[in-house]
Design brief:
Blueprint: H1 2-9, E1 11-12, H2 14-24, H3 26-50, E2 52-61, E3 66-71, E4 77-83, E5 86-99, H4 101-168, H5 174-209, E6 216-217, H6 229-239, H7 241-262, E7 267-277, E8 287-296, H8 304-370, H9 376-410
Parallel strand pairs: 1-6
Antiparallel strand pairs: 2-5, 3-4, 5-7, 7-8
Length: 419
C-alpha cells in the first residue's frame, strides 16, 4: 500500500501542469498586464470629468516697500501699504467639468477597451494552456516511443545472447552472429535517440510549466466536443474569446468614430477660486474668493475634426473586416479539426491492428528461433516490424489527441478545467 501511494505521488496530470503554467509562466502574467493597462486608460478618461484642484503660493522679496496715505470720508488719514517688501500671495482653485461630450465618448470607448483587454487576457491564457497541453502530449508520445525502443533493445539483447551461445557451440555461422550484433547496435542507437527525444520534450514541458516536471505523466481524459457542424460553429462564435475581443474592438472603434462629432457640443464647467495675500491694498481684504461658470464651443478647428472622423471611419471598417475574416477562420478551423480527428481516429484503429499482427508475428518468430526453426535474420526483421508498428501507434495516438485538442480549441473550450 505504501509503495502504491509513493507511485501515485509521482504521477503528474495534465490539469496540474496547466494550472501551474497559468500561475507561473511569464506569458500568463503578461496577459494580465494587458487588462491593467486598459483599466488605467479608463481611469485616465474618467479623470477628465473629475476636474482639477490646485494650490499655489508666491513669495516675493522687494527692494523697498510702497505706501500711500489715504484720507477717508471722515477726513482721517490712513496709511495704506500697496507693496510690501516681503510679499505673500496664495491661490486655491477648483475646476470641474459639468458637460464634456467628447470626454463621455472617450469613457465609453475606454470601457469597451477594458472588456476587449479582458477577452484578450482570456485568449492569451487559453493559448498558453493549449501550448502546455500540446507539449504534454508530445512528452507522452516521446516516452511511448522510448518504451518501444527499449523493448526492441531488450529483444535484441536476448537474440544476441542466444546466437552467441549457438555460435560458441558451433551450431551457427559467423555471419549470423554479426547480423545479430548489427541488429543490437541499431536497437541501441534507436533507444538512445528515443531517450534523447523524450528528455528534450520533458525539458520543453518544464520550461512552459516553470518547474522541472518529473514523474509519470497520466493519460489525459479530455472529452471530444460533440454536435453538428452548425451547433459547434455557433458554440465557437459565442464562446471563443478571440472572436469576443474583435467584437469589442469593433464596438470601441465605432464609439471612437462618433467622438469627433460630439465636439460640436459646448463644453461647460464651473470654477471656484480663493486668494490670500498680505497686501490688501485699498480694499483692506486679505482673503477674496470668486465663482465662475465657463462655456467653450469650438466651431471651427481648421478641418481637423473631419479628418479625424474619416480616419476613424476607416479604422471601424478595418475592424469589421477583421471580425468577418476571423469568423470565416473559425469555421475553417472547426471543419479542419473535425476532419483531422476523424482521420486520426481511423489511423489509430489501423495502427492498433498493425501492432497486434506485428506483435503476434514477432512472438511466433521468437518461439521458432529459440527452437532453431527460424533464423536470426527473421527474428531481427520481426523485431523491427514490431518496433515500427509500436512507433506508428504512438504517433497516431498523439495525432488523435492533438486533433481532439484542436477541435476543443476551435469551439472555444479549454484543454482542462484549469483557468
Amino acid at each position: 500500500m505504501i509503495l502504491g501511494l509513493l507511485i501515485a505521488a509521482q504521477t503528474v496530470s495534465l490539469d496540474t501542469v496547466v494550472a501551474e503554467a497559468l500561475a507561473k509562466n511569464e506569458d500568463a502574467e503578461a496577459a494580465q498586464l494587458v487588462v491593467a493597462r486598459a483599466e488605467a486608460s479608463k481611469r485616465e478618461a474618467w479623470a477628465e470629468l473629475f476636474g482639477d484642484l490646485s494650490v499655489s503660493g508666491t513669495y516675493r522679496r522687494r527692494a523697498f516697500e510702497i505706501t500711500r496715505d489715504f484720507e477717508d470720508e471722515n477726513g482721517n488719514v490712513n496709511q495704506v501699504v500697496l507693496s510690501r517688501q516681503n510679499s505673500l500671495f496664495g491661490v486655491a482653485r477648483a475646476e470641474i467639468t459639468v458637460l464634456d461630450a467628447t470626454a463621455i465618448s472617450r469613457i465609453s470607448k475606454a470601457g469597451a477597451d477594458v472588456e476587449s483587454a479582458e477577452a484578450r487576457n482570456v485568449e492569451l491564457r487559453r493559448a498558453l494552456a493549449f501550448s502546455v497541453a500540446d507539449t504534454y502530449l508530445a512528452v507522452l508520445a516521446a516516452e511511448r516511443a522510448k518504451a518501444a525502443a527499449e523493448r526492441r533493445l531488450a529483444l535484441a539483447d536476448d537474440a544476441l545472447a542466444n546466437v552467441k551461445a549457438r555460435f560458441d557451440a558451433g551450431l551457427t555461422a559467423k555471419s549470423v552472429l554479426n547480423r545479430s550484433k548489427l541488429e543490437r547496435a541499431t536497437a541501441q542507437l534507436e533507444a538512445t535517440r528515443a531517450d534523447n527525444a523524450a528528455q528534450q520534450m520533458r525539458l520543453s514541458l518544464s520550461f512552459v510549466v516553470g518547474r522541472a516536471v518529473t514523474g509519470t505523466l497520466e493519460d489525459p481524459t479530455a472529452e471530444t466536443p460533440v454536435g453538428s457542424d452548425a451547433e459547434l460553429l455557433a458554440s465557437a462564435r459565442d464562446g471563443r474569446p478571440d472572436v469576443k475581443r474583435l467584437e469589442l474592438e469593433l464596438e470601441a472603434r465605432r464609439i471612437a468614430g462618433r467622438e469627433p462629432w460630439f465636439g460640436f457640443v459646448p463644453t461647460v464647467g464651473v470654477a471656484a477660486e480663493v486668494t490670500a495675500t498680505n497686501e490688501p491694498g485699498f480694499t483692506g481684504q486679505v482673503v477674496n474668493w470668486s465663482l465662475a461658470a465657463t462655456a467653450q464651443w469650438l466651431l471651427w478647428d481648421g478641418g481637423v475634426r473631419y479628418a479625424v472622423a474619416r480616419r476613424r471611419a476607416a479604422d471601424t471598417r478595418e475592424a469589421e473586416l477583421a471580425l468577418a475574416k476571423q469568423l470565416r477562420q473559425v469555421e475553417l478551423e472547426l471543419r479542419q479539426a473535425r476532419t483531422d480527428l476523424g482521420t486520426a481516429m481511423a489511423a489509430v484503429t489501423q495502427a492498433e491492428a498493425r501492432l497486434e499482427v506485428a506483435r503476434e508475428n514477432a512472438e511466433e518468430v521468437r518461439a521458432r528461433f529459440q527452437q532453431g526453426l527460424a533464423t536470426a535474420l527473421e527474428q531481427a526483421d520481426a523485431a523491427v516490424a514490431e518496433y515500427d508498428a509500436a512507433q506508428a501507434l504512438a504517433s497516431e495516438r498523439f495525432e488523435a489527441s492533438a486533433a481532439t485538442l484542436r477541435l476543443t480549441r476551435a469551439v472555444g473550450g479549454w484543454p482542462t478545467d484549469a483557468r
